């Protein structure tokens, strides 16, 4: 099929540089001020490289260099690269939570691309919220765009044993509190768990979202699994630079690539890799930007039919480096066979089916077949009931199977500080059968929807050997976390959701196979409690936080801002 190619005068950047008027004179003289001649830029696609590098983002430490490698590819293909720095969002460093700023990055990405003379975009990110933030912005701007995933770091090591980001932090923190490892052991783990630049190397939110970005068609084939320090990584970055120039000439935009089929594929892969529960919120938000209506129930339908086949922590045993050596995402997608719609398009101009055809698995314990899955329990279940009328989620594959059907008395913490103050108190009335409940941890309550959902277990229970309990919150949890944690309860407590009405001793029933989360309290009593409920004061009197609180949607809607998902196309800026 022949593809129509744009003419240079049809480039978006032509409006800045190609016309003969006073403003264009200014633009041209100013680009020459930086030492460029017209041979460098005139009539060429201008490629905005949106870079989420910063001095404090450990996962993106290599992106300053990768941007240069992308530029190399852009130059090779006859484009003109311009690097545009964007907010970096280091997952462990940014407070109160990076989730407060995902939409900020999405807005920034969209507006950077709109306000500058960009014909195409290369998006550099990977640390948790950066992938959805960049892609949401690119979907809204809808000029040709390609994503260069930061890639996972090397596996951690301690005394000859592999260590996984996050997952082993939680595990050994519990052991330290239980007294089974020493402070010195803990110090050695701190030295060995993060060995290179790159994202978390478990199947946390970063690896999940990079895999989803590839499945949606936003990366070159195989890009998402390459470890950040591997020499294939800069080669992929340069190839992405070459490819975006061609995408501009072909006018291959996000809206030409993403479809309902590509989102269904992304959800399927999310389940097959045992992906982070955070992906639920991001998938809903990205679909919203693409104008594709998805609901929690759509995710649940797919979750029921897709087993976990990536044997990667926290649902499995290995790490992302092993996953890459086993073949990476391409053969995993190939293993999914008819569960994937092979016709969905991707940035290289081919379908995802073409891109994964013939991809081989090199270690069938790491990438399993559908006949030999890691877990049939599913990477996601959507729960409903009087405690979560708009839904809640759990990751059954990372939970203790014995707890997936459980009733127990609630132990309620009104917020994070209350939990931190009382959790280890010797007189806390709690047993292994209790259900720990955390309120005030949602988009409004946190504020910003923090990752507090893997509530730590009370010390006295840890010392008795307990390692999992049912926990319920309106919070998220890290993709590297595990346990029987019910998350994203909606509506959240801070806006008066039923989770705000739970009291100590109330019985809570969790039935994952039946998809139920129920508060066993009569309706009349709940009515009385609701009448007495007092809304909390807002966290922010002004500024971005106040904007967030005014416009953020609930977890079941993706937590985007309502004004960013509103219909309508923003006009190109006037050039005066
Ligand atoms: Fe950046 Fe985990 S901290 S991906």
Note the main attributes of this structure.
12% strand; 3 domains; binds FE2/S2 (inorganic) cluster; 21 helices; Glucose Oxidase, domain 1; alpha/beta; 4-stranded parallel β-sheet; 576 residues
Percentage of residues in helical conformation: 25-40%
Major sheet strand order = 12-11-10-9-13-14
Q: Hey, roughly how much beta strand do the residues contain?
A: 5-15%
Tell me the span between the first and last alpha carbons: 40 Å
- Describe the largest sheet: 6 strands, mixed
- The structure class reads alpha/beta
Work out the oligomeric state of the chains in this entry. single chain
Write down the overall mean pLDDT: 96
| Tally of individual helices | 21
Overall tally of structural domains: 3
- Unreliable sequence segments: none
Characterize the overall form. globular
Taking all Cα atoms into account, the compactness measure Rg is: 24 Å
- Tally of strands: 14
Q: Which small compounds were modeled alongside the protein? A: FE2/S2 (inorganic) cluster
